[in-house]
Amino acid sequence: MTGIWGWTELSDRIRTGDVASDLLRPVPPVTAYLAADLGRGAHATLTRLVPPVVVGALVFPVSIPHRWPTVPLFLISTVLALVGCFACRFLVNATAYWLQDARGPLMLWTLGSAVLCGLYFPLRLLPEWATVTLWIGTPLPGLLQTPIDVLVERDPAGRQVGLVALQAIWAVVLLFLARTVQRRAERKLVVQGG
Description:
The protein is mainly α and 194 residues long. It has one domain (2-192). Helices cover 72% and strands 2% of the residues. It has a two-stranded antiparallel ribbon with strand order 1-2. A hairpin with a 2-residue loop joins strand 1 and strand 2 (6-7). The chain is globular.
């Protein structure tokens, strides 16, 4: 389910106890939810991104990348942003295993991530020390700002590759954390008799 605070399916299933049936399935919950999220992202790309861009290109002048590697790098960056965002949302939803209700963490996630991923303003408007700290110390810039910066070729090619590599590292770390939290939660459910 997607509401005003985003994806809440996992936290809702934890709250109602329906998550117990997810644990009986042969596919681990992290993998199942990730596959569904990647499918949702592909559908959104085909239905909500491509048509407006095509229509916009027919009506307005469009700036295209000057370096040919930018396009595949942007596609990779976009997929990594989708995976990273999924893992963050999974972790926030998984707080319901311990809190029983994840609405508070979901609100904090929604507000904090919007500011720190570059949705409200470009992160490069911040002082350089804050920008570097955000980019290296958190996965949030990789959820929006990095794909945009890659597409508009804001940086030289080497730095673009470095930013996408940092995105990949964060995606791996976040998926590892999501799997670890899920395994711990499954042990908690067994201890509670769930």
